[in-house]
Design a protein that fits this description.
With 223 residues, this protein is an alpha+beta fold. It is built from 8 helices and 6 strands. The longest helix has 25 residues.
């Protein structure tokens, strides 16, 4: 097999492995999906290939001490940080996007591995990434954890605080809590977006029990 065909195969394998990870992220409706992961892996592989083989003629002219084929590949690791930073957001007192950003970073590393011909390392890493991403979801289902998002509106801030204290005392995990003050025609209204995690399957009914007697409180929720 000629060198050109070998390098083309490296680029194809790198893009394919990145696409596999991206497909899993797309299925979870994450910020970066198939196309992003595919392009990151493809670009990383191409840069690695160019870095390793694109300057052979230059190396014949420049002394080997000054020629470092790893220099371009090293920039991938720091460069991918700019994309990852754009995926991380702080919302409702919770950081989102860390896993997706880390996934892109690993995808870039997989591309580098393919670019230098280490298919075995790239494939094993891809399998490990998929296991790590799926394992969390499987364990979560086994533990019967349920996610519940609740939006509350009330003219009395104390009612919202009372509800939050009640769910925490009830054993539910408060994953996110965001309180906003709205100025409406009838006066000041407090709006709270609350995200809960619980092992109880029937916790929706329990929420209504906790809200019983809180007159003037408007509540909507979704699983």
């Amino acid at each position: 097999m000629s060198l050109s065909y070998d390098l083309i195969i490296r680029i194809l394998v790198g893009g394919a492995l990145g696409g596999i990870i991206g497909f899993e992220r797309e299925k979870r409706a994450k910020e970066a999906g198939f196309r992003t992961h595919f392009l990151v892996a493809l670009g990383s592989t191409l840069i690695s290939v160019i870095s390793a083989f694109g300057y052979d003629k230059v190396a014949e002219i420049i002394p080997i001490a000054r020629y470092d084929p790893s220099r371009l590949a090293a920039q991938i690791v720091s460069g991918i940080g700019f994309i990852g930073a754009g995926l991380i957001i702080f919302q409702k007192n919770v950081i989102h996007g860390l896993t997706t950003a880390a996934g892109l970073w690993v995808t870039a590393a997989i591309g580098i591995a393919c670019g230098v011909g280490h298919y075995d390392l790239a494939i094993v890493t891809t399998i490990m990434v998929l296991i790590a991403l799926e394992l969390v979801m499987i364990i979560d289902r086994k533990l019967n954890k349920r996610q519940l998002s609740i939006t509350m509106k009330s003219s009395e801030k104390e009612k919202i605080s009372k509800f939050v204290d009640s769910v925490k005392a009830d054993g539910a995990v408060l994953k996110a809590y965001d309180l906003e003050v709205l100025d409406e025609g009838n006066g000041r209204i407090y709006k709270a977006d609350i995200e809960l995690s619980t092992k109880r399957i029937d916790y929706e009914e329990r929420v209504w029990d906790l809200l019983e007697g809180m007159e003037g409180t408007i509540v909507s929720h979704k699983k």
